[in-house]
Amino acid sequence: MSIIHSLLTATNFRNPFLRNLIPSIGLAFGIQAAVAVPSILGQTERFYDLSGSLTYLSCTALSLYLPVLRARSAAALVDAPKPGWPSLASALNGTAGPYGFNWRQVFLSAAVSLWAARLGSYLFMRILGDGKDSRFEEIRKSPPKFAVAFFAQAVWVSLCLLPVLSINSLPPATFAALGGFVSITDLLGVLLYVGGLGFEITADRQKSKWSQEKKEKKHDEDFLTRGLWSKSRHPNYFGESTLWTGIATVAAGVLASNAGVAGMGLAGGLAGKGLALLSAGISPAFVTFLLFKVSGIPLSEKKYDKKYGDRKDYQKWKKETPISIITSILDIKYQLPIRPTPHLWPYLQLSRILTFQLAYTSSTDLFFSTALLYQFRVLERLWGSRKYASFVAVIFAVNVLLLPFLTVFLKGLTFGLWNYLPAGLTAIVFAALSIWSDEVPRLYRYKILTGKIPLATATEQNDSTTAGGGGGGGNTRTAAQQQSQTDLPGITLSDKSTTYLLATQLALCQFPYQLIPALVGWALGSAWIGELLPGGLSRWRVPAWVVGESPKSKERGQYEGLRRRLEEEGSSADGMRNVSDRVAERQDTARRGFGRQIASYFTGS
Question: Are 304 and 385 in a shared domain?
């Protein structure tokens, strides 16, 4: 019996995930131990990074081909025909067979291999040129510390590869149960990987070019401040963290499914899904922690602080350049508000017209708008997701041109005093508020008394209570008694008053500039529900697939037609009020002045 067969037999666990995981991790520690011994004896770190890349490549290949390797080994013991080695192309043409690959297995394995080969060759060529690595200056001469470094690298490889090892442990039946479609997690993961890898490659090339130019005396700069390095002090680390997030995203989409949980040999339910997601998510979390808190940024920052910490130009660069590209991206909040001068002219930053509604720049605005949108969730229940999404899309699109135009107009009208349009979705919030105030009826009203109750009224209430408890006369209140309670001094409110108060506070934030989006949003909401917008925008609907709806069946089409007819007749979507109630309310509103109409929203009258 060969050594390989003995190892395969010893690691032939019942759980398919462990059958793949244990041998791969064992190989990682074995390679690191084999490279650590001569490196420690020779006190050289020249092959440290290269051995890490070799470990990634070896463990990935082993996890991919381990199932067929076990099958061939078992067939050799009984002199049975050995199964052939599956080709990587079989994952694309659908001829995978019992030991074949799914395209996700091939992609993730190739993604890791490409990253490892590129990074390993880059770091190996760099150390050949520099002759040493500054990270090992203090541990190179200490065998225990140097051994720990190789041990840590084996742990690094094992944890980073965990999503790939997990998905490579799944049998072909798991992927067959998922179907052949490409999911959202697949697309998102691929995009994150490609973007992260491109970011890391670009940052490394910019640094290599800068170092080469410095050796050639083309500049005398001591630290890199060009390209991506002007946006972040460590853009390469951001790229690496992003690409591992992409790999984990593709793996999580499969592992968290019911078929994936079963394929890993885990128990069903939340516990199984949680373990499956943990096996995918631990990789980017560990990489990010390692780079930002342990060996990446801390060591680099410590070295540069010690070398240039007393220089003012270094202090200025460190203060103005964020440590991570994430911090630089978060600075986008300064790119959202619009000042006609100078943003629109003379800088021509027209992109602000498309982005100013995407996010708030004030936590106060964010708090009030979030509370209001939570109240308006009832609109989606009344209308359905498709109509609600259409409403938001239309209001957003109209505001792209309308609000900047009004801001420019007011700037001219006020001779340059009104020169600011706050960022945020205030207009959309108030558009929803105008519809919510009309579509959702109040449930109750109450009064907060501001004075003492007259003695006569209190006596009447006691008499009414006594009469009601004596002989079942609970409804014996006279009209005069009810009128006397209505005339009590106080403030009448309703269950909707709190919502209107939150909206008022939102409109008064960043006073007076927030008033324009609020008023415009209210007007647009009223125009949308009244079908007064041009071009039939009120009847336009987003495609059904946008909100995850399947194509309408015949029955659903009939239901939608009935609901549209009800809406045309003046009924609310939930049927809670009839046509006569609405007409009477609108006639009563028309008789009141504008001030009384606004006050009525708060008082509930």
Answer: no
- Same domain for 312 and 369, yes or no, is no
Q: Which of 299, 327, 355 is the last residue of a domain?
A: 327
- Beta bridge mates, 421: 338
pLDDT at 583 over 70: no
Position 385 in a domain? yes
How far is 209 from 473, CA to CA, in rounded Å?
94
pTM for the model: 0.57
For residue 491, the model assigns a pLDDT of: 86
C-alpha neighbours within 13 Å on the C-beta side of residue 296: 20
Q: Would you place residue 574 in the very low, low, confident or very high pLDDT band (cuts 50, 70, 90)? A: very low
Ramachandran region of residue 97, left (φ > 0), alpha (ψ -120 to 50) or beta?
Answer: left
Q: Is residue 459 part of a domain?
A: no
Reading the block at residue 76, the tokens are: 């050799």
Q: Which of 153-162, 322-331, 456-465 has the highest mean pLDDT?
A: 153-162
Q: How far apart are CA 80 and CA 214, in angstroms?
A: 64
pLDDT tens-digit readout, 224-258: 888 888 888 888 999 999 999 999 999 999 998 98
User: Do 524 and 399 form a contact (C-beta atoms < 8 A)?
Assistant: yes
CA angle 298, 304, 310 (to 5 degrees): 125
Residue 27 lies in a domain: yes
Residue 588 lies in a domain: no
Same domain, 218 and 123: yes
Q: What is the pLDDT of residue 3?
A: 75
Nearest to residue 439, comparing CAs of 530, 521, 523, 517? 530
Q: What is the largest CA-CA distance in the chain?
A: 107
The boundaries of the domain holding residue 153 are: 3-327
Residue 199 shares a structural domain with residue 54: yes
Tokens encoding 288: 């990010």
Q: How far apart, in whole angstroms, are the C-alpha atoms of residue 256 and residue 200?
A: 29
Taking the C-alpha atoms of residue 128 and residue 133, their distance in angstroms, rounded to an integer, is: 10
**Considering its fold, how many domains does the chain have in total?**
2
Label residue 90 by pLDDT band (50, 70, 90). low
Taking the C-alpha atoms of residue 602 and residue 494, their distance in angstroms, rounded to an integer, is: 7
| Residue 421 main-chain phi, psi, to 5 deg | -125, 110
Identify the weakest region by mean pLDDT among 147-156, 486-495, 537-546: 486-495
